Amino acid sequence: MKIRQILYYAVIVSFGIFIRPQYPQPVDTEIDEISLDELSELIYNRDGKALLINIWATWCVPCREEFPDLIKLSDHYEDGLDVVGITIDYPDELESKIYPFLNKFQINFTNYISGEKNAEKLINFLNTDWKGALPASFVYDTDGEQVEFFVGKKTYEEFEQVVLKYFN
Question: What is the pTM of this model?
């Protein structure tokens, strides 16, 4: 009986060694911190493209639910719209949370870590009506003027309505 149990556990352990979960290939991107000055530069130096900034966090369920639609939006409107994500996760969570999160979704747009330690400054910089809820998206025209701001999870169709409203 003991031999049978030992063999059983040996098979289970061996099986676990050879069968590993399949994870998506790592995203070929570097995630840098972005300061308010750099964010301002990003907003105002548009190079003929509109901009959608999405503020997110790995722990935010609506953020995770919204990411596939942001990826689709970035793919579909890549010629006229830059989609940029900014996580408010801590920089020391880059390897443990942020990269795995982005790899899971095979992200196709630029992402940064907020370099602003004072959340209130970031909030007021982006829009004084924003209370800090996530996800939050800010849409800028080709001149860097904010034309839309919304809080909460949006669908691809809702994002597309904004894009078509201002940039068609």
Answer: 0.83
Are the C-beta atoms of 56 and 83 separated by less than 8 Å? no
Bridge partners for 33 per DSSP: 113
CA separation, residue 151 to residues 62, 87, 164 (Å): 10, 15, 19
DSSP label at residue 96 = I
Which structure tokens are listed for 29? 């991107």
pLDDT tens for each residue of the chain, 168 residues long:
566 555 445 444 444 444 434 434 455 567 999 999 999 999 999 999 999 999 999 999 999 999 999 999 999 999 999 999 999 999 999 999 999 999 999 999 999 999 999 999 999 999 999 999 999 999 999 999 999 999 999 999 999 999 998 876
- The domains of the chain, with CATH numbers, are 31-167 (3.40.30.10)
Nearest CA-CA partner of 139 in 52, 20, 19: 52
Q: Note whether 148 and 162 are within 8 A (CB).
A: yes
Helix residue ranges, H only, the chain:
2-18, 36-44, 61-76, 99-105, 119-126, 156-167
